[in-house]
C-alpha cells in the first residue's frame, strides 16, 4: 500500500482548522508574521497533537495586510533572520509542550520566490538546517527549494497542490491569473489522483508534465475547504493510499 502525506496551512486565524484537522497528516502552522499569533500557534500545535497530525513551521513574509502573498526583496541576512526567527518561535512552543516539530514549509510569496530562485532557496535551507538538521523541508516539486535543501543535506518532501493549477514549466499558475484556483471538487480529486498515481499533472494549457508527489497541499482558506479536505481524504483511502506524514 502506497503512502501519501496530506498537508494544510493552518493557524492563520480562520475558523476551519478544527474541522479540517481530522482529514490531514501534516499541519503547516503560521508563525505570526503573515498571519497568526503566539496564542494561535499554541492552540494549533495542541490541536494537531490531539489529532496525531505532524506539526510544521510555516514562515512567511511579515506582511499580514497581503497575507504574505506579495513579493518582497530582502537582503540575505534579513531573509535568513526572517525564516530562522519564525521556525524558532514555533519550535519553542513545541518544546514547551513536548510536541515534535517535524518540518518547515515556506508560505505564499516566500515559497514561490524560493521555488524559482536558487540563492533564496539556499538561504532558507541553511536557516532550517541551522535550527535543526533533522527538520524536513517541504517545497514545490522539481523546484530550487527541493534541490537546495537536498544539497544542504536536509530531508526533502516534494509538494503538489490539490486546488491550484499548473503551468508547462511545472510552476503554479499565479493567483493573479484566471484559472489559478481549482474550485470544482471533482476536478481537484482527479488532479490529486493523477499526481499521486502517475506522478504527473495536466497543466492549465492541457500539456502533461512530470512531478514528484510526496505531500499534497490543500488550502484551509477556500470557501469549500472542509468539504474538499474530507472528500480528497476519502478518495485517497478509496484508492488504497495510506495518509501519513513522511
Question: What report would you give on this structure?
Answer:
By secondary structure, the chain is an alpha/beta fold. The chain has a single domain (2-243), classed as TIM Barrel (Alpha-Beta Barrel). The protein has eight helices and ten strands. A hairpin with a 5-residue loop joins strand 7 and strand 8. The model has no long low-confidence stretch (mean pLDDT 95).
Number of structurally distinct domains: 1
Strand content: 15-25%
What is the rounded Rg? 16 Å
The residue fraction in helices comes out at 25-40%
Q: Going by CATH, what is the homologous superfamily?
A: Glycoside hydrolase/deacetylase
* SSE run: EHEHEHEHHEHEHEEEHE
Which architecture would the CATH scheme give at its second level? Answer: Alpha-Beta Barrel
Q: Regarding quaternary structure, how should these chains be classified? A: single chain
* Envelope shape: globular
How many strands, what sense, and barrel or not for the largest sheet? 7 strands, parallel, barrel
**Any low-confidence stretches, pLDDT <50, length ≥5?**
none
How many E strands? 10
Discrete helix count: 8
Kindly report the average pLDDT value. 95
Supply the helix-strand structural class.
Answer: alpha/beta
Amino acid at each position: 500500500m502506497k503512502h501519501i502525506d496530506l498537508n494544510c496551512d493552518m493557524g492563520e486565524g480562520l475558523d476551519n482548522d478544527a474541522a479540517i484537522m481530522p482529514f490531514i497528516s501534516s499541519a503547516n502552522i503560521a508563525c505570526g508574521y503573515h498571519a497568526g499569533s503566539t496564542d494561535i500557534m499554541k492552540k494549533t500545535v495542541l490541536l494537531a497533537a490531539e489529532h496525531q497530525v505532524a506539526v510544521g513551521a510555516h514562515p512567511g513574509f511579515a506582511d499580514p495586510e497581503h497575507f504574505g502573498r506579495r513579493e518582497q526583496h530582502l537582503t540575505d541576512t534579513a531573509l535568513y533572520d526572517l525564516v530562522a526567527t519564525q521556525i524558532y518561535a514555533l519550535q519553542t512552543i513545541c518544546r514547551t509542550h513536548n510536541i515534535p516539530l517535524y518540518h518547515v514549509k515556506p508560505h505564499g510569496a516566500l515559497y514561490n520566490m524560493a521555488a524559482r530562485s536558487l540563492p533564496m532557496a539556499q538561504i532558507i535551507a541553511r536557516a532550517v538546517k541551522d535550527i535543526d538538521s533533522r527538520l524536513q523541508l517541504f517545497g514545490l516539486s522539481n523546484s530550487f527549494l527541493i534541490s537546495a535543501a537536498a544539497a544542504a543535506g536536509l530531508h526533502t518532501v516534494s509538494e503538489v497542490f490539490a486546488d491550484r493549477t499548473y503551468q508547462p514549466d511545472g510552476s503554479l499558475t499565479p493567483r493573479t491569473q484566471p484559472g489559478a484556483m481549482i474550485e470544482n471538487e471533482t476536478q481537484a480529486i482527479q488532479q490529486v489522483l493523477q499526481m499521486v498515481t502517475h506522478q504527473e499533472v495536466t497543466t492549465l494549457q492541457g500539456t502533461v508534465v512530470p512531478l514528484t508527489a510526496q505531500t499534497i497541499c490543500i488550502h484551509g482558506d477556500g470557501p469549500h475547504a472542509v468539504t474538499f479536505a474530507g472528500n480528497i481524504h476519502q478518495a485517497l483511502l478509496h484508492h488504497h493510499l495510506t495518509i501519513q506524514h513522511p
